[in-house]
Amino acid sequence: MVLGATIAAVAFVISFLVFNSTNNEPELVLVTNQKTQESILSDSISPTFFANGSPILGNPDAPVTLIEFGDYQCHFCNVHFHNTEHSLVENYIMTGKVKMIFKDFTIIGPDSVNAAHGAHCATDQGKFWEYHDILYNNWTGENNGWASSDNLLQFAQEIDLDIDEWSNCMLDSKYSQIIIDSSNDARNLGITGTPAFFVIGPDNKITKINGAKPYENFKEILDFELNKLT
Hints:
alpha+beta; Glutaredoxin; globular
């Protein structure tokens, strides 16, 4: 069993450069001068919001949905994770009021795709969100190698994944199309930078939030949508 895990891990590291070099995702420049938020009312919600994303975090029947488009290498995505996401999870998601979905918009570089793939491969073992968290908790910059094959493998080991299963998933590029499709979803929704968020209320009102805004901005919008239920 140990030998099998070792062989899979070594094979993953060797072939990582091939996976790294074959990514065709274009790089985009982050846009920082966007409006803070925009609101629209829709009769129906496009499946684009929900397809090609993470497992739902929280109660699947929660009346309000928070969708984040992010890149694991993005500085401001990391700022949001550390300054805001934990409070949102504690106060809204774990209380059953809001459900959350993370979608990839891999715009910074090849390691963005590799990190995203690591998280999706953890999904097969029910640990997407644990891998999502460990990526952001080990972020050290953009395109500086922190999402190397060795580090991604170490993250998998730290959250007690089955290394054979996870490594084989990485070697097979199992989630490549989902990552590409998620990034295309972002473009189809007019997103030009990360992070970008959509709050979908119980009446299908959609509020777009651009950038890593403070917790209070999210709280105001989420409370407004939840108050429609009373």
